[in-house]
Amino acid sequence: MKKKIVLINPPYPLEKMPSPHLGLMALGTFLKREGYDVLIEDYVINPYSRERAGKVAVIERPDYIGITAATMNINRALEIAGDYKNADAGIVTLAGGPHVTFDSVNILRNNRQIDYVVRGEGEITALGLLKTLEGKGNLEDVAGISWRKGSEIVENRDRPFISDINILPIPSLTLIEASKYRALGLPINMITSRGCPYRCIFCAGGKISGHKVRYYDVSRVVDEFENISRQGVSQINIADDLFTSSEERCIAICSEIVRRKIVHPWTAFARVDTVSERLLRSMKEAGCATLCFGIESATQGILDIIRKKITPGLCRRAVELCRDAGIEPMTSFIIGLPGETPETVERAFQFSRELSDKRGYHRLAPFPGTELRERAGYYGIRILSDNWDDYDANHAITESLTYPASEADRVVGEFNGSIQKYVDGLVHKRGRGEPLTGPEDDIVNRVRTFSFVARIITGGLLDTDNGRGGGGPIKDFRNFIEYLSGETGFMPSEASVEFERLVASGCVKVLNDETGFRVSWV
Q1: What is the dihedral of CA 111, 115, 121, 127, to 10 degrees?
Q2: Separation between Cα atoms, residue 72 and residue 485, nearest integer Å
Q3: Could you tell me how far CA 65 lies from the centroid of its own chain?
Q4: Contacting residues for 71 by C-beta, under 8 A, at least 6 apart
Q5: What is the pLDDT of residue 1?
Q6: Whole-angstrom distance, CA of residue 494 vs CA of residue 363
Q7: Which among 53, 40, 52 has a CA at the least distance from the CA of 85?
Q8: For residue 316, how many C-alpha atoms fall within 13 Å in the half-sphere facing its CB?
Q9: 518 pLDDT band (50/70/90 cuts)?
Q10: What is the structure's pLDDT at 468?
Q11: What is the distance between the alpha carbons of residues 494 and 81, in angstroms, rounded to a whole number?
């Protein structure tokens, strides 16, 4: 009989525009190929409750629970693991992901509900651990895990990175509820490589996936791209640490997309010193709509401190090349880096306005595993909180003598507030019957649709018996729209338009026959 593992994606705010968890999809597909029965419980797009955990534990009867988390939701993940343990003490719990990789000792010391930590790349390590737990080896021999041996926390040797990642299967979209992400208008992530050759002090990416870039074969990459493009998603996001690390390979991928006549918009991340006119024109031809650059600062001294190894001049050139190629550049800045002052922040804001209309500012966060966290004092940074719940990007958690946390909160808050004020203004403008431009109308439509779908998802409105618990049985379409209107706060006419859009896009299906009126996610 197959062993069963439930992989858990803990709650994460929808307003942060999450994508389906690529790591869980990759691990789940791999374990499924190796003979395991796999279920992904995604509590980003499903309301979590202790009752639901108990129901999954009783109905699915998993042998193992595998849970991952970002720093900001690690405490919630640990609570959920505890709920599953309480529902069935015999379940073996595994925790993985970047946070627990670098905080494994504390996780195991302070959380008895976690039995094992899988550090770094999860596929081979998790499989080795499961096989060992099934009596096929010794725990001491499983590289890449941390565990308890009596009262002792044991950290086994690190596992080498997978040299040929092509041994891993393409992550299967059948493991997730893609229709809910599509309904929200969120992209689907994929990667074409693992690893980053750079060593920026605020990032632990190279420690997680290695400083040597390992590539998937071009044909495999485009097979995955083509499969996602058929799912009706609004956009594909290539989420490599550095998609443009090899110009020739990027061009080969783009050429194969064009050769197969796949037409679908996509985005990617790049460094400003890894793009050229030739590369960008090839990317544009293959459908690249937006290229995201981590600029971080407009001050060369700060760029040197954080080992970014770029210059403001290179940033200007990369943005200009994007525009010339017809790709929209997006820039990202970090506020509060070592050496930051009010003057350098103002310079960053001015520089960002000159570069692109699409830009974002983020408060500095010293995540576990980063050199910045390990050597904060050396860099003149004071960490204000070790409560992981505070690492949600909603307020500053670092400061220095030259730049206090209150200033970071003020400038980032003002920028984010200005965006919200602009969007609210468009909504009110249309509500007054005033004309909007095409792009403005598109913004309002996306905001309204997102809000409507988010309320359906967070309320579990289509995951129950179509509202039977919230006002009696649903009789017909009109009755159902009244129910949605009452639950979402949208006028019946608005709810009808938004719901019909979900049906037309293939995210939701309606069945109305002799058994009654029923609605469900596709």
Answers
A1: -170
A2: 33
A3: 21
A4: 98, 99, 365, 367, 368, 388, 391
A5: 79
A6: 37
A7: 53
A8: 8
A9: confident
A10: 36
A11: 39
Please tell me the predicted confidence (pLDDT) of residue 427.
Answer: 86
Q: Angle of helix 74-87 relative to helix 50-60, nearest 10 degrees? A: 50
Q: Give tens-digit pLDDT for 27-64.
A: 999 999 999 999 999 999 999 999 999 999 999 999 99
CA distances from 169 to 25, 34, 123, 173, 224 (A): 10, 11, 11, 12, 10
Question: Which two structure tokens, joined as six digits, stand for 303?
Answer: 């760029």
Question: What is the Cα–Cα distance from 243 to 266, expressed in whole angstroms?
Answer: 12
CA dist 374 and 388 (Å) reads 16
Total-model pTM: 0.94
Read off the tokens for 167: 């041994």
- Which residue, chain included where needed, has tokens 């809000």? 451
CA distance 126 to 116: 10
Spatial distance between the Cα atoms of 386 and 340, rounded to a whole number of angstroms: 22
Cα 66 to Cα 233: distance, rounded to the nearest angstrom: 27
The residues, ordered by sequence, that sit 6+ positions from 179 with a Cβ below 8 Å of its Cβ are 506, 507, 508, 521, 522
* Mean pLDDT, residues 275-294 taken together: 98
Residue 93 identity (one-letter amino acid): T
Q: Are 343 and 298 in contact (CB under 8 A)?
A: no
> 4-155 in CATH: which number?
3.40.50.2300
What is the mean pLDDT of the segment spanning 99-120?
A: 97
Alpha-carbon distances of 492 from 451, 471, 488, 512, rounded to whole Å: 15, 16, 10, 20
| Assigned CATH topology for domain 187-366 | TIM Barrel (3.20.20)
Predicted confidence (pLDDT) at residue 470 exceeds the cutoff of 80: no
Tens of pLDDT along 404-425? 999 999 999 999 999 999 988 9
Of residues 212, 211, 171, the one with CA closest to residue 191 = 171
